[in-house]
Design goal:
By secondary structure, the chain is mainly beta. The chain has one helix spanning about 215-220; strands at about 10-15, 20-25, 35-45, 50-60, 60-65, 75-85, 90-95, 95-100, 100-105, 105-110, 110-115, 120-130, 140-155, 165, 170-175, 185-190, 200-210, 225-230, 240, 245, 255, 260-265, 275-280, 290-295. Strands 3, 4, 6, 7, 8 and 9 form a six-stranded antiparallel β-sheet that branches. GO terms for molecular function: signaling receptor binding.
């Protein structure tokens, strides 16, 4: 009768006395004599390999484990396995049932981005799967993440300035009730830098680092990077040079020998335009004007 009980264990995060815990809950079939449960907690130590970190025997329909930053920390994927037995026949145990893996830490949605040099903004959501504790007073019920971007080039080597722009350098994850695997959430936008260079597709990464926390749990934690692939797009160029020879975006060529201030180009989709100022540079012999100033909005 104990072989398969459909215990269906599930892990949820919870704050207990101001400290972060994980709770394993499972269904309890009515039985006489009442059932006892063995709950084994484990974490993924290397891909495909689990390491046992705690084992409880309890008559309750739940079991807790604390995230203390030592045996269990942020960045860990945690499982709980439940087996049932009766006290008068402890050797007769039900088949062990394992929960789905619970990732404890900061998650980015999406986990990676594919964007193009087209000026579009892409929303990146940052969430914490565990509740934010309040170790001190005042404004401490939050996690502040310092964000940075780096260009990895084609061979995943750091090259220098990033090929992406972020809408914020810092975000705050504020304490909120946990729901649907999120206990705190923030969002920012990511845009590819239009660099006017045909440099092929490039890879950048976004790094997030918790700052200003004194507790062990967050201090020793760095979330996983977000990989951003930027697709290169050809960009238009226009020119005005010497005694102004002008080449437009679509390759049309003409000369403008007039003196004055002119609108060289204007965007129809955003607030951007370029003005040029041309002065006489030909003297008495020829009516020629040269570029002598430029203003860009």
């Amino acid at each position: 009768k104990l072989t398969s009980l459909a215990l269906q264990p599930v892990i949820t995060p919870e704050l207990v006395q101001g400290r972060v815990h994980l709770k394993c809950t499972y269904s309890c079939p009515s039985s006489k004599p009442p059932l006892q449960y063995v709950v084994t907690w484990s974490r993924l130590s290397t891909p495909g390999k689990k390491e046992q970190i705690q084992r409880d025997t309890t008559p309750q329909s739940f079991s807790y484990i604390e995230m203390n930053g030592v045996t269990l920390g942020l960045g860990d994927t945690v499982f709980c396995t439940v087996t049932a037995f009766t006290r008068d026949a402890p050797e007769q145990q039900s088949l062990p049932e394992e929960s789905k893996g619970f990732y404890a830490g900061i998650k980015f949605l999406p986990e990676s981005l594919q964007i193009a040099e087209d000026g579009r903004e892409h929303v990146l959501t940052i969430l914490s799967t565990v509740p934010i504790a309040c170790p001190g007073h005042d404004n401490s019920c939050k996690i502040t993440l310092q964000l940075s971007a780096e260009d990895l080039g084609k061979n995943s080597q750091l090259l220098g300035p990033p090929n992406i722009a972020l809408s914020a350098c810092q975000v705050d994850l504020l304490q909120a009730p946990c729901s649907e695997s999120s206990c705190a959430e923030a969002a920012l936008t990511v845009t590819a830098v239009t660099d006017f260079a045909q440099d092929g597709n490039r890879i950048s990464r976004i790094r997030a680092e918790p700052v200003g926390r004194r507790d062990l749990l967050w201090r020793a934690y760095t979330p996983k990077d977000v990989k951003v692939t930027v697709r290169d797009l050809p960009t238009g160029n226009c020119y005005s040079f010497t005694d102004p020879h002008i080449i437009t975006f679509d390759g049309w060529r003409y000369d403008n020998y007039k003196i004055g201030t002119f609108l060289l180009c204007r965007s129809v989709s955003r607030a951007f335009e370029v003005h040029v100022r041309q002065w006489d540079c030909g003297g008495h012999r020829s009516a020629t004007a040269c570029n002598c100033g430029v203003a860009a909005q």
